[in-house]
Write a sequence for this structure.
């Protein structure tokens, strides 16, 4: 009678199984030992989660696929911004053109990802996309133009900084009137388009890192944790110290309390 595999040996074998069908037809599936059955359940959960991520990714590619079905060689650019709501710091936009064979499974709206996952995806995207860029509108421009127009300015700057010119644009909830190429305004685009989600992640990591640098330059506002949003610690810092050079003077409560 052949010697039974150890549970560790079976776990190692299951790590190479890539589908639930293959899992259920595995020769050790009938092994009744509790540890073996637990290993099968664990691997099943992993495969189910992976299948859900793949399904979600395919759903997030539907806008891109609609364009590519008509124009297979289209260069599709996703655009998103970060930082419209904070009381301090610039608004940052990113423009991203994915490679044709992209497979960034697990990508999502940057706000739905933890910091570690965002950082991992940020680096992976930068290393594996056709082109990416950042555009920034300053606090002074926000106060002069208003946040909506400053956001557009940051997006135009991101587009102008790309190394290649896109043929199509997918934009998160904005319309850019100065673009000649076809564009599509997508509500909640960072959760519905893989290109916009990629831009969302790159923009957020860039701005979060920038605000962490500002925290060292302007201590007392907790910028390293709130990225300029009006949290209790940020408001406490404002009450104690007043405004600093990166506060948006046109935003409430700064406008009414500190001018």
């Amino acid at each position: 009678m052949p010697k039974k595999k150890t549970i560790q040996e079976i776990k190692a074998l299951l790590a190479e199984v890539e589908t639930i069908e293959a899992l259920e037809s595995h020769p050790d599936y009938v092994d009744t030992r509790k540890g073996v059955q637990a290993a099968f359940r664990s691997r099943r959960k992993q495969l189910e989660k992976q299948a859900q991520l793949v399904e979600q990714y395919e759903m997030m590619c539907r806008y891109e696929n609609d364009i590519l079905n008509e124009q297979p060689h289209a260069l599709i650019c996703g655009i998103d911004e970060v930082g419209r709501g904070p009381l301090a710091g610039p608004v940052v936009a990113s423009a991203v053109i994915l490679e044709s064979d992209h497979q960034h499974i697990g990508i999502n709206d940057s706000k739905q990802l933890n910091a570690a996952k965002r950082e991992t995806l940020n680096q992976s995207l930068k290393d594996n996309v056709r082109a990416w860029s950042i555009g920034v509108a300053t606090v002074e421009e926000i106060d002069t133009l208003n946040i909506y127009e400053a956001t557009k300015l940051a997006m135009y700057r991101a587009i102008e900084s790309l190394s290649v010119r896109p043929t199509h644009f997918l934009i998160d909830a904005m319309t850019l009137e100065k673009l000649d190429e076809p564009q599509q305004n997508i509500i909640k685009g960072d959760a519905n388009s893989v290109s916009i989600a990629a831009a969302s992640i790159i923009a957020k990591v860039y701005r979060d890192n920038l605000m962490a640098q500002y925290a060292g330059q302007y201590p007392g506002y907790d910028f390293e944790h709130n990225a300029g949003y009006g949290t209790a610690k940020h408001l406490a810092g404002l009450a104690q110290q007043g405004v600093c050079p990166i506060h948006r003077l046109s935003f409430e409560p700064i406008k009414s309390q500190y001018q």
Notes: The radius of gyration is 23 Å.
